[in-house]
Amino acid sequence: MHIEALADSRSSSELGQQLHLFAADLYPICRSITGNGIRRTLDKIGERISLKISEVPTGTQVFDWTVPKEWNIRDAYVKGASGKRVIDFARSSLHVLNYSMPVHATMPLAMLKPHLFTLPEHPDWVPYRTSYYKEEWGFCLSHNEMLALEEGDYEIFIDSTLEPGHLTYGECFLHGRSSDEVLISSHICHPSLANDNLSGLSVATFLAQLLSERDLRYSYRFLFIPGTIGAITWLARNQQATERIRHGLVLAGVGDAGAFHYKKSRRGDAEIDRVATYVLNEGRGSAEILDFSPYGYDERQYCSPGFNLPVGCLMRSVWGTFPEYHTSADNLDFINPQQLEESLRVCGAIVDILEGNQRYCNLSPFGEPQLGKRGLYRSTGGNKIGVEIDARLWVLNFSDGAHSLLDIAERSGIPFAAIRDAARLLCDKGLLSVAQD
Amino acid sequence: MHIEALADSRSSSELGQQLHLFAADLYPICRSITGNGIRRTLDKIGERISLKISEVPTGTQVFDWTVPKEWNIRDAYVKGASGKRVIDFARSSLHVLNYSMPVHATMPLAMLKPHLFTLPEHPDWVPYRTSYYKEEWGFCLSHNEMLALEEGDYEIFIDSTLEPGHLTYGECFLHGRSSDEVLISSHICHPSLANDNLSGLSVATFLAQLLSERDLRYSYRFLFIPGTIGAITWLARNQQATERIRHGLVLAGVGDAGAFHYKKSRRGDAEIDRVATYVLNEGRGSAEILDFSPYGYDERQYCSPGFNLPVGCLMRSVWGTFPEYHTSADNLDFINPQQLEESLRVCGAIVDILEGNQRYCNLSPFGEPQLGKRGLYRSTGGNKIGVEIDARLWVLNFSDGAHSLLDIAERSGIPFAAIRDAARLLCDKGLLSVAQD
Amino acid sequence: MHIEALADSRSSSELGQQLHLFAADLYPICRSITGNGIRRTLDKIGERISLKISEVPTGTQVFDWTVPKEWNIRDAYVKGASGKRVIDFARSSLHVLNYSMPVHATMPLAMLKPHLFTLPEHPDWVPYRTSYYKEEWGFCLSHNEMLALEEGDYEIFIDSTLEPGHLTYGECFLHGRSSDEVLISSHICHPSLANDNLSGLSVATFLAQLLSERDLRYSYRFLFIPGTIGAITWLARNQQATERIRHGLVLAGVGDAGAFHYKKSRRGDAEIDRVATYVLNEGRGSAEILDFSPYGYDERQYCSPGFNLPVGCLMRSVWGTFPEYHTSADNLDFINPQQLEESLRVCGAIVDILEGNQRYCNLSPFGEPQLGKRGLYRSTGGNKIGVEIDARLWVLNFSDGAHSLLDIAERSGIPFAAIRDAARLLCDKGLLSVAQD
Question: Quick check: pTM over 0.90?
Answer without folding.
Answer: yes
